[in-house]
Amino acid sequence: MDVKLSFIFASILLTAASSSVYERDEVLRIFPRNAEDVRFLTSMEEQPEISLDFWKLPSGPDNILDVHVPKASLSHVKDGLTRQGIPFSVLVDDVGLALQQHMRTNRMSRERSRMRRDEGFDFSVYHTYREITDHMRYLADTYPEIASMMSVAATYEARSIMTIKLGKPFSNGTAKPAIWIDGAIHCREWIVPATLIYAVDRFVRQYGSDPTVTRILDDLDLYVTPVFNADGYVYTWRSDDTRLWRKNRAPQAGPCVGVDMNRNWDSRWAEGGSSHDPCSLLYHGTAPFSEQETRDISGFIWAHRRDIRAYIAVHSYSQVWMAPWGHSQNRPPGDAAAQDALGRLAVETIKSVHGTDYVAGRAMETLYQVSGDSQDWTYDKAGIKYSYIVELRDTGRHAFLLPPDQILPTAEEIFPSLLAVGEWVLEH
């Protein structure tokens, strides 16, 4: 074996053999039967000594929760669920082992990719924040007539949150209708930036040859921000033990760090489905838009609200396409039918590629309320009719640790759904 390869694989195996802070933690799949069960689970999440991490909140018709439980809390949580009669099963029996296997696979795939770097940007592997933004700059430099880089926001650690604007300007200089797409506000959702940078690449490279892409970029502007939570995303690459970080990196009270930026928007802020505890993974911050990132990006969206016709916040996991509301089960009067129709079209388009089933619905057709989220703000305050949250693959087998061999299939099925949204906006 090549000496370089021997060193690489030895390093990988050594890393995999080391212990993890998540060793023998479990992910439980919980099946709440009613709102009382959800309140019980929420009460446990609010006990900092238990340190629950809700990986999947109830969303869509399955209404299940996936909860990462530290090994020290397992007996307490399982006993509590049993006493309450709440059904559950073990989804992941050793989070530390699953994480090490995921990171080992990721390192190996990246090393193989480096050996064929002359083939260009490799969409079949996960990329660092710098690699993603460098490719965005490359596309903007290579296709300046339809792509330009923008820094629309800054982070606590003084990084620029990079957005790429796609679209051919109108010859008379007037503003075009637009779509805003962002991802990785929860930074551990690595499949999201991987999917969005693929979509950006396809848009610019297929302009002029694909009639649908050409029409969309001729008549619309697309603002795409693959990594909303830049500080957090960089942090998830620091070590195996930081891979599951969710929030931003702004210091809070005491030893706590970070705000869940999808609970920090000024729409029903702090009303439910978030936490007042600065150490909680669902911490909503000290006030609406307390975070630099949400202030800056909401400010940009607000300034362009008359042009932005659709807003898509991309997350993982669950395979759902959700319209408002997150805070209420009431359907938006007047807009619900059109929102539902576009949602159904999007999931049908996704299914047509690889047969993957996504569910179209509403964010709170469930037992769990979410407040202060971006989608409710863009619809409620900015008036963007077609505001959606999209949760990518999978449904829980790999969860946030989706293996690299699923990156391209995920990206390939999502790109046509974005084309469908663009066509819908132009026709309606």
TrEMBL record:
Keyword match GTP-binding: no
Query: Which residue positions are annotated as catalytic?
Result: E391 (proton donor/acceptor)
UniProt GO cellular component terms:
extracellular space
Keywords in UniProt for this one? Answer: Carboxypeptidase, Disulfide bond, Hydrolase, Metal-binding, Metalloprotease, Protease, Secreted, Signal, Zinc
Query: Please, which domain of life does this record's source organism belong to?
Result: Eukaryota
Which cofactors does it use? Zn(2+)
Q: Name one GO molecular function term.
A: metallocarboxypeptidase activity
Q: Where located? A: Secreted
Q: Which InterPro entries does this entry report, sorted A to Z?
A: M14A-like_propep (IPR036990), M14A_act_pep (IPR003146), Peptidase_M14 (IPR000834)
Pfam families hit by this protein: Peptidase_M14, Propep_M14
Peptidase M14 domain ranges (all copies): 125-425
Q: Which residues form the signal peptide?
A: 1-18
Principal cellular location given in the protein's record? secreted
Purpose: Involved in the digestion of the blood meal.
Stated name of the protein: Carboxypeptidase B-like
Name the source organism: Branchiostoma belcheri (Amphioxus)
